[in-house]
User: Which sequence fits this backbone?
């Protein structure tokens, strides 16, 4: 299973992001969507699970949940906009992966058997940070995450 991951689009869905996420079986958006039409465009590729971020305070994006859990390939993925806002112990809750955003800096880490993935920012460039999305290939118990600069 291929999972596409993005965050912090801030109302901008770049064509390069769509190309990088093509072929995904499911897409996770970790907040700061900025415009609900972004989720509609992503749904043309695959089903989408999305949460709101700190800029999603008005309109349909404000109605997205603050956190969400989705089961994909038999594993639980927990979405929270900022890893600092975690309201549970992922390893104790049986979470396989925590997907976050907010910092606009991509990162991949494994702690206590849990994958922590921040895909970075797919929207407007912030400072000199790269514009990125991510994918996770899931095969059995094996996760292969990748940050993709777009």
Assistant:
């Amino acid at each position: 299973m291929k999972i596409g991951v993005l965050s912090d689009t801030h109302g901008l869905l770049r064509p390069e992001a769509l190309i990088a996420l093509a072929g995904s079986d499911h897409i996770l958006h970790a907040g700061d969507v900025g415009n609900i039409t972004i989720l509609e465009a992503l749904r043309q590729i695959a089903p989408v699970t999305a949460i709101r971020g700190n800029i999603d305070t008005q309109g349909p994006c404000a109605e997205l949940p603050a956190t969400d859990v989705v089961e994909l390939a038999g594993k639980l993925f927990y979405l929270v906009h900022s890893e600092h806002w975690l309201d549970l112990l992922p390893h104790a809750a049986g979470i396989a992966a925590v997907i976050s955003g907010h910092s606009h800096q991509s990162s991949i880490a494994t702690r206590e058997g849990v994958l922590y993935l921040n895909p970075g920012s797919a929207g407007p460039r912030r400072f000199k940070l790269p514009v990125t999305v991510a994918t996770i290939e899931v095969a059995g118990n094996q996760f292969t995450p990748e940050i993709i600069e777009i």
